[in-house]
Design brief:
This protein is α+β, with helices and mostly antiparallel strands. It is about 25% helix and about 30% strand. β9 and β10 form a beta hairpin. It is built from 8 helices and 19 strands. The strands form 5 sheets. Strands 1, 3, 4, 5, 6, 7, 8, 11 and 12 form a 9-stranded mixed β-sheet that branches.
Length: about 350
């Protein structure tokens, strides 16, 4: 299955935060159900029990300037081997405060630039090294993103207030559906994500080698999603993107020699046999964040009602797992019932980034 970069250039803001892999997976499934017949949808769903038709990563930020792109990846969960300053005197306490501030900067970053990510997954840069780069100014934090000073200079991000993504709570009025007027005192807020000029989202996608020519063609699905958008409030213009599928040769993923673990680029729901391998050897360390996932069914197919899928717990992108075998993808899709006659799944397939981090311990 070839690996392609997928670029989403925003036409406006996005409700919520950046797009996680189950959201993109679900949007592709609903696009398939809309564009193709029932037989094709059943074939798609049956493939989830074996090899999936497509596997996607979460969507991460990118910025484009003068025809060049800078990609960001999820911050891997690194072992914290940061030095502690001992002593109760004033100087020691001041040093502890400075170190704590730098640690906070490092922990607050959700994304690493492609150069920093390559250094981390290849084992040349650990948490201590990242901390030192932040302290020396060689690495700069811009919002949720951590990048090198050279990258910041090249892409116009040297200003302290520069941000690729900005999230804000936007106030809305509730409309009375009978009078079609604003309901008095009924204000509510929703989180929205705004993009800087030249910024957007990108993800990685594995598709079958013949995806461009068979009945389940990927390009019509992407054109459909470019028209309909992702996430909530799409009818008011939120979550709409220009979508472009890149070439396999353009994948900015570092090839790591002698990898001993892998970093998940997706929200990951492991198969039972994958969990059994971890449990068979307690020495295989795991570093992960768990997220609770309870998505809604496609509102356009449920009359606008909020019908939720069962609660799932998924590993977040950036979690680190021991390397037991090299595969193009891990995980599974979890069946979540039926909706209007269609079987519904939560996508828990994960794309790996091979890494050399000491076995994940």
């Amino acid at each position: 299955m070839p690996l392609h970069p997928l670029y989403l250039t925003p036409r406006g803001s996005l409700q919520g935060t950046t797009l996680p892999s189950p959201t993109i997976f679900g949007a592709l499934c609903w696009a398939t159900a809309t564009l193709y017949d029932e037989v094709t949808v059943r074939d798609l769903c049956a493939s989830f029990e074996g090899e999936p038709r497509f596997v996607v990563s979460d969507a991460f930020p990118f910025v484009e300037r003068d025809g060049r792109r800078l990609h960001f990846f999820p911050m891997p969960l690194l072992p914290e081997r940061l030095p502690a300053t001992l002593g109760d005197d004033l100087k020691s306490k001041q040093e502890q405060t400075i170190i704590a501030g730098r640690q906070k900067k490092l922990k607050g970053a959700r994304y690493l630039s492609e150069n920093l990510f390559a250094e981390v997954v290849s084992g040349r840069l650990d948490a201590q090294g990242l901390l030192q780069q932040v302290a020396s100014g060689d690495a700069l934090r811009r919002g949720d993103c951590l990048l090198t000073q050279e990258e910041a200079t090249k892409f116009g991000l040297m200003a302290r207030r520069a941000r690729l993504l900005t999230d804000a709570d936007v106030t809305h009025n509730e409309i009375d559906r009978v009078t079609l007027a604003v309901a008095e005192g009924r204000l509510f807020q929703r989180e929205e994500l705004f993009f800087a000029d030249g910024a957007g989202l990108w993800c990685l996608m594995r598709v079958p080698a013949g995806a461009g020519g068979d009945k389940l063609s990927l390009l019509p699905l992407l054109r459909y999603l470019s028209d309909t958008g992702f996430g909530g409030d799409r009818t008011s213009g939120k979550g709409h993107f220009d979508i472009r599928l890149g070439d396999p040769d353009d994948v900015p993923l570092t090839q790591v020699e002698s990898a001993d673990c892998w970093v998940s680029l997706s929200h990951y729901l492991p198969r039972p046999e994958e969990i059994a391998v971890w449990q068979s050897d307690a020495s295989k360390g795991l570093r992960y964040n768990l997220v609770q996932w309870q998505a809604k069914h496609e509102s356009s197919r449920s009359g606008g009602e909020a019908i939720f899928k069962p609660l799932r717990r998924l590993f977040a992108a950036g979690s680190v797992f021991p390397l037991t075998e090299k595969r193009e993808w891990f995980g599974r899709a979890a069946w979540s019932g039926t909706h209007n006659g269609h079987p519904v799944y939560v996508g828990g397939f994960a794309l790996p980034a091979w890494a050399k981090l000491g076995g994940g311990g």
